[in-house]
Amino acid sequence: MPEGLKTLFRPITVMVPDLVLICENMLMAEGFVEAKILASKFYSLYSLLRELLSKQAHYDWGLRAIKSVLVVAGGFKRAEPDLPEQTLLMRALRDFNTPKIVKQDEVIFFGLLSDLFPGVDPPRKQDPTLEEAVVAACHTKHIDPDPAFRLKVVQLEELLAIRHCVFVMGPPGSGKSNCWQALQGARAELKRKTKAVDLDPKAVTPEELYGYIHPATRDWKDGLLSRIMRDLSTEPNEDAKWIVLDGDLDANWIESMNSVMDDNKMLTLASNERIPLKAHMRMIFEIRDLNHATPATVSRAGIIYISTNTGSQWRSLIASWLLTFKCAESTTATLRTLFDRYCEASLLFIKKECKPMVPVEDVTLVTNLLRMLEVLLTPAVLKKCSDHATPPEEATRIVDTYFVFAAVWAFGSTLSLKDTEDYRILFSDFWRSEFKAVRMPSRETVFDYWLSPETLNFEQWKNSPHFSTVEYNSRTTAMSQVTVPTPETCSVTYWMELLLQAHHHVMLVGSACCGKTQLVNGLLSKQKPDERLSHTINFNFYTDSRALQVNMEAPLEKKAGINYGPPGQSRLVYFLDDLNLPEVDKYDTQSAIALVRQHFDYGHWYDRAKLQLRNVQNCQYLACLNPTAGSFVINPRLQRHFFTMAVGFPGPTSLHTIYSTFLEGHLKGFNEDLQGMANNLLSAALQLHASVATTFRKSATNFHYEFNIRHLSNVFQGMLMAQPSEFKDPTKFAMLWLHESERVYGDRLVNYDDLTKYKGLAAAQAKKKFTGINLASFFGENADALVFCHFAESTAEKVYDRATSMEKLRHTLDEALREYNEMYAVSSMGAAAHRGAAVAA
After folding, report:
1. Is 303 helix (H, G, I), strand (E, B) or coil?
2. Which of 387, 516, 575, 713 could form an SS bridge with 624, CB 3.0 to 4.6 Å?
3. What is the spatial distance between Cα 766 and Cα 738, in angstroms, rounded to a whole number?
């Protein structure tokens, strides 16, 4: 601060408060006689907790936290004045700090409590009426009333009674949303109406959240949060009202909430309007972590942390699913046994030994298993299992076999080749050695087999009815529009189609050029338009929530009121390609991802102009993601909603199948000599590609030296431009292959040494595969020019052919340039550029 400005202020020194004295005074005010002793114990406990517990961002041992516990202790004192004061304080310290203590710190926390209050262990103060209502609400929502979950719901109610702002924290899939929704249902059971309004603050900009003054007109434009808060505060009734802010924290929006979260309970807007948070209103922040929250923010809210370390969430998920899955009791008992047998061991192995393509939670893997069981255990299968004519042993075998087929893909679907380790092979070896009740073929991996519903035997995917061959006609169909089935693509398409029909969301994960987009487009092209429409959205660095919302609303139509959906009775599939490409802000969040997650969790988003809710119905998502590009991963709270499948690069056999389909289909109109050289051409192209990819590696200087299947496809795309009228000689077609390969591979090389090395590789393949064709003249120091183009003779005839004379080619280019400069005199071009290109070619 400048000295001239500093002199205008009066300096004040603020000392660290004497917490022992403050505790003593507050305890005396609450009616405690032993205030001096208890204040010392209180301060000792919080000092030790600050030093000994792990450094969690949500831990707060400051004055606000102390005051909250002392207020609770005073309430206990007035409710039960006859109990010993040490017992009352110990209960308050235990019951209102336990919700935020992570699992690893519980031993230290309870150890310190027992040391400071020896022999004191009062039971938790319970409200039987509330706990019964929580159980009833869980049954209504088809949630397993697990004791740990019920405790968190009750703790949330107790926290809301003393704090008007609460952070509900935990990893993805820990049950945060279910926690406050179950409490809302329990309060409804007790005839205590509670209204909850949700909003993801990251799905809109801070200006759209709070409101802003228009810079040109100086008019005030309301924000979503200010509108919601004002509407709730002006409602005439005194029913409980919750504003649920479900989204990641960042300083841009959470710091503006400080005046609401402290004792002022007032939202102050840029328009000087002040909106109060009334006594019957609460704010619930459902968040993943507090990495970008300041200590001032953390201290202003009560915190309840829901851990996933014990695995209670996925066990409760299974129990809830068994309650709603309609099948015979014997089948339910068999399924319960199978869950116990396979789940825990598989989850532990994946966590310890495997690296999925993207991080996935245990709850997500178990959810995948449940989704697969739903699509495999059809009513016909369940009817056969419950039929009295089916022996119990046979019924058990049927369920067990289907369960194994589903479990293999549910737990292993995210595994592939990563960091030179093929985790699918590792998982396959584990499965065969660990689980032997259902025998799978010993050859290849467990992912290479399909379960035949007729025989209940595992057969190779190429023998399944879902595998088919395609006839390719290059004259009517572009190469990019055809998906050639292979055993790998057959398995992915099989599961995608089943899950799509069951209205589940699917994500394909894999490196660039492994065919993710092609697989999805091939599946969507088979859908009936009157049943399922699709809308493709290609994400990029600049995709934000506003642009995405406009794009997603384009195919929708208004139904009734605030409801929107696809036209007619059809369902809409949003295909989100390159989902992880949007820009990551400095708080590690992406607004476009936040908007999609809001739709996943709540089924709606907000009209940014009218500030009204829009329920978007009958929609589901398919997505593709490259974990080596963009942000690498997406918000795990969105990731967990997808059934994630890893897509690897096709193997040599599959590559041969794919490109032989294209090449042989194209050569059907050519003479027999050309058709007979298809295998040699295919083999030469595949082996040259493998040699180039191995020889020229990506480096810091040559970061573009990356050769994948897309480049191989470009080679074949060039060969497919040949026409029977121009190509009648095998030698000429071999020249075409050399030309296309050099345009794809050679033109990416940066120096003559690399180019010479490439030409050596190409010459070796040409000599090996085309023994009867002399191609030596195109290699060496004085090699002949080899150029194929659409203007070999003239620009008038668009025929793809070899340029036999470089002088004639230069003349053609000069004529084309002259015509261009005559038509576009303003942007005329010189001759140096195209002559250099022609010489280089």
Report:
1. strand
2. 516
3. 8
